[in-house]
């Protein structure tokens, strides 16, 4: 299997700078979306540094990943998940360290949604409220959980779904890369299939989705370059209040 991707980021209609960063590396099969937090505290620095750290970390471990995928047993799959988690932790430590050394960067952090597709396996690592979706035979799955205050309250039964739809805290994230020197990272694994599509996006895009139909409509669009342009246009047409980033990944034989 091989992956073919397209990616696009836009400042939107309200923000003065773009604090999102992304990676789309078809050679490694590595894809990342990071949404910087901090504004004047240099969220754009945090997101860029975090993406670069994960890219370097995974590149260094690609031989181990391929060997583990070839073995295919449960322990080997868990080894890859731990590797990806460690890469995000490395990024977290570096971003936090940069902020500690420079008062102008104090408080900067970033979300991070990471997808690695190698040898028919898809691995996800998640921190924050950017997202990874998978589309297979028109069936949509959100592969990541939003680490937001509103989702935490909903998950723990503190509010109802109806209250969540109207409640405050939707944009308050409960986990971020670089906020502290350690962060809890969610990881997951999936068997990839030919014709699968994956989409990574910041909340500047998924915050404007009005049901799964919007997501499927973007992800099913051909070619991928047109799909990501369609995503940016949708968010801007509906307000563009935040930076908008979309990475679309298509799995081929």
Would you write up a description of this structure?
The protein is α+β, with helices and mostly antiparallel strands. The chain has one domain (2-252): Phosphatase 2c, domain 1, CATH 3.60.40. It contains seven helices and eleven strands. Strands 2, 3, 4, 5, 6 and 9 form a six-stranded antiparallel β-sheet that branches. The chain has a five-stranded antiparallel β-sheet with strand order 1-11-10-7-8. Strand 2 (20-25) and strand 3 form a beta hairpin. Helix 1 packs antiparallel against helix 2 (74-101). It is globular. The model has no long low-confidence stretch (mean pLDDT 94).
Strand content: 25-35%
CATH architecture: 4-Layer Sandwich
Rg over alpha carbons: 17 Å
Task: Compute the average pLDDT.
Answer: 94
Percentage of helical residues?
25-40%
* Biggest pleated sheet: 6 strands, antiparallel
CATH topology: Phosphatase 2c, domain 1
- Termini, distance in Å? 5 Å
The CATH first-level class comes to Alpha Beta
Structurally, the number of domains stands at 1
Q: How large is the count of helical segments? A: 7
Low-confidence stretches: none
Gross morphology is: globular
* Strand runs, count: 11
Secondary structure category: alpha+beta
Say which CATH homologous superfamily is assigned: PPM-type phosphatase domain
Order of helices and strands: EEEHHEEEEEHHEEHHHE
């Amino acid at each position: 299997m091989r992956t073919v991707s397209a990616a696009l980021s836009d400042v939107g209609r309200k923000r003065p700078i773009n604090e999102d960063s992304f990676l789309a590396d078809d050679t490694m099969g590595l894809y990342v979306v990071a949404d910087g937090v901090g504004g004047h505290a240099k969220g754009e620095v945090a997101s860029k540094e975090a993406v670069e750290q994960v890219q370097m970390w995974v590149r260094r471990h690609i031989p181990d990943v391929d060997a583990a995928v070839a073995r295919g047993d449960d322990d080997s799959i868990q080894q890859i998940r731990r590797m990806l988690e460690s890469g995000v932790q490395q990024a977290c430590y570096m971003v936090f360290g940069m902020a500690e050394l420079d008062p102008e960067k104090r408080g900067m952090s970033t979300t991070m949604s990471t997808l690695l597709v190698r040898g028919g396996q898809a691995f996800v690592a998640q921190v924050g409220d950017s997202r990874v979706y998978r589309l297979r035979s028109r069936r949509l799955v959100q592969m990541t959980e939003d680490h937001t205050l509103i989702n935490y309250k909903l998950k723990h039964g503190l509010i109802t779904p109806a209250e969540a739809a109207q409640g405050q805290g939707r944009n308050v994230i409960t986990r971020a890369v670089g906020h502290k020197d350690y962060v809890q990272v969610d990881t997951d694994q999936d068997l990839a299939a030919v014709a699968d599509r994956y989409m990574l996006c910041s909340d500047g895009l998924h915050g404007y989705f009005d049901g799964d139909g919007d997501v499927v409509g973007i992800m099913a669009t051909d070619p991928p370059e047109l799909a990501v342009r369609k995503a940016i246009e949708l968010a801007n047409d509906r307000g563009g209040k935040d930076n908008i980033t979309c990475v679309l990944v298509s799995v081929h034989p």
